[in-house]
Design brief:
The protein has a single domain, classed as Hotdog Thioesterase (Thiol Ester Dehydrase, Chain A), CATH 3.10.129.10. The strands form three sheets. The chain has a five-stranded antiparallel sheet with strand order 4-6-7-8-5. It has a two-stranded antiparallel sheet with strand order 1-2. It has a two-stranded parallel ribbon with strand order 3-9. The longest helix is centred in the C-terminal third of the chain and has 29 residues. With about 190 residues, the chain is of the alpha+beta class. A hairpin with an 8-residue loop joins strand 7 and strand 8. The structure holds coenzyme A.
Length: about 190
C-alpha cells in the first residue's frame, strides 16, 4: 500500500492527486468486509427499555469506518449517514453489524451496514433490526480529500448493491446542489 504522504500532490481543484505515481490498485468488495458485535446493556436504553437509535448509529459508524479504511488503506472521515430502524432492540440482545463498501466516487465511498440482533435466549436466529448507508471521504496527511481505489464487483450481490448505491449517490448529489443554491440566496 502506498502511504498518503508518498501519493500526495495537490491538484488545482484541491483534491490530492498523484499524476506521476501508480494509481491505487482496484480492490474487491470482499476485502472491505468486517463485522462488529455488541451486547446491549441497560446503559444503552431509553426510558422505555428500547436501545437508543444513537447507540446503533455509533456501532454502524464504527464498523463502516473500518470497512472504508480497509478499502482506501488510510484514514477516512464520515460525511453522510442514513439509517432505517426496522425492529426494536432490547437489553441482553447480541447485536452484530456487518459492513462492506458498495460504491466509490473519486474521493468518497459508500459503506452499507446490515445490523441484526440475536435475542438472549436464541442461539441460531438473527433478526434484521437496522440498515445504514454511510459515506466516507479518504484524506491525505494534510486532511485533504484523496482519490480512493476503484471497487471490483465480484458477485451478483455486489452488483445489485452497487446499482442501488449509485441511485443513492445521485440523490445525495442533488441534495448538495439544492443546499448550495439555498446558501447563495440572500438572507
Ligand atoms: C471531508 C471534507 C474534508 C471534504 O471537504 P469538501 O469541501 O466537502 O470536499 P469536496 O467538496 O471536494 O468533496 C469531497 C468528496 O466528498 C463528497 N461529499 C462531501 N460531502 C458529502 C455529503 N454530505 N454527502 C455525500 N458526499 C459528500 C463529495 O461528493 C466528494 O466526492 P467525490 O470526490 O467522490 O466526487 C469535509 O467535508 C470535512 O472535513 N467534513 C467533516 C468530516 C468529519 O469531521 N466527520 C466526522 C468525524 S469522522
Amino acid at each position: 500500500m502506498v502511504s498518503a504522504e508518498t501519493r500526495a500532490t495537490v491538484s488545482s481543484s484541491g483534491v490530492t492527486d498523484a499524476p506521476n505515481l501508480p494509481k491505487a490498485a482496484p480492490r474487491p468488495v470482499s476485502a472491505s468486509r468486517v463485522t462488529l458485535a455488541h451486547l446491549m446493556t441497560a446503559a444503552d436504553t431509553n426510558p422505555y427499555g428500547n436501545v437508543h437509535g444513537g447507540v446503533l448509529m455509533k456501532l454502524a459508524d464504527d464498523v463502516a469506518g473500518l470497512a472504508a479504511a480497509r478499502h482506501c488503506g488510510g484514514p477516512a472521515v464520515t460525511v453522510a449517514i442514513e439509517m432505517a430502524l426496522l425492529r426494536p432492540v432490547h437489553v441482553a440482545d447480541l447485536v452484530h453489524a456487518a459492513a462492506h463498501v458498495t460504491w466509490t466516487g473519486r474521493t468518497s465511498m459508500e459503506v452499507q451496514v446490515d445490523i441484526g440482533a440475536q435475542r438472549w435466549n436464541e442461539t441460531d436466529q438473527s433478526h434484521p433490526v437496522a440498515v445504514a448507508h454511510v459515506v466516507y471521504v479518504a484524506l491525505d496527511a494534510d486532511a485533504r480529500p484523496l482519490p480512493v481505489p476503484p471497487l471490483v464487483l465480484e458477485t451478483d450481490d455486489d452488483r445489485r448493491d452497487h446499482v442501488e448505491a449509485q441511485l443513492r449517490a445521485e440523490t445525495r448529489a442533488l441534495h448538495r446542489v439544492k443546499r448550495d443554491q439555498l446558501r447563495e440566496e440572500p438572507a
